Amino acid sequence: MSTLRVTAEVLTVHPHPNADALELAQIGLYRAVVAKGAYRTGDAALYIPEQAVLPLALVEELGLTGRLAGGNADRVKAVRLRGELSQGIVCRPAALAGTDLARAAADGTDFAQTLGITKWVPPIPPTMSGDVEPAPELLAWVDIENLQRYPDVFAPGELVVLTEKLHGTACLLTFHAEDGRVQVSSKGFGAKGLALREDPRNLYWRAVRGHGLGAVAARVAERLGARRVGFFGEVYGSGVQDLA
Predict the structure, then answer these.
(1) Whole-angstrom Cα distance, residue 184 to residue 217?
(2) Which of 37, 80, 118, 244 is the most buried (most CB within 10 A)?
């Protein structure tokens, strides 16, 4: 499951090709622009990734007032600084003064809760929301961590399969063979154990009914002798996302 983690990391520092006063701090395959001389290769510092929402006191402490994304200017997003992509924030907050960041990096300590940092959840358009109901047996969406954070996860020569994710909105369906129930949810609601009640106006239900996915799931369940069958997919097209 893709999660927000705010961890200490050991940095590799590179020159910034277009700015004398800036450098690039590398974390995994991510890079963040930092002030020149603030860090050296081998130093440990906190890495705050994209989609993190910072408390305003921390925004002010880091000198980022008015420079972050979102209506409250408190959300971290990738930006280009003097032509180089900066994917997150590298810092040493005062709240962690006295913390052995090198040890924390080795231990994988998560400081998100300590610093009051949360993950940004995009607002849900009306056609993607609706009435919900508890669904404890719903098969929740399985997300994937970004490879850039884990550059050593594959061994040299290891065979891998690549698939391309379409740009849309995540839809999930759970079929219950014992009574033929079909439960439909979104990635966000599914993570909370909630299913969307059927509504002809709802985008996910329109996709499920329009493509007859309930009947497909029933055939799969019969063929496999499965008690539950889950489908994960992407609903896309004009009006769903900014890239149609």
Answers:
(1) 12
(2) 118
Rounded to an integer, what distance in angstroms lies between the CA atom of residue 6 and that of residue 113? 9
SS3 of residue 150 by DSSP: coil
Residues 142 and 89 in one domain: no
* Domain region containing 142: 126-235
Residue-wise pLDDT for 79-134, tens only, equals: 999 999 999 999 999 999 999 999 999 999 999 999 999 998 776 666 677 888 99
Residue 25 banded pLDDT, cuts 50, 70, 90 = very high
Rounded to 5 degrees, what are φ and ψ at 8? -80, 140
CATH number at residue 80: 2.40.50
The reply to whether 244 falls in a domain is no
pTM above 0.85, yes or no: no
DSSP lists the bridge partners of residue 69 as 75
Number of domains in the chain: 2
Q: Specify if 41 maps to a domain.
A: yes
User: How far is the C-alpha of 87 from the C-alpha of 33, rounded, in Å?
Assistant: 8
Is pLDDT above 60 for 2?
A: no
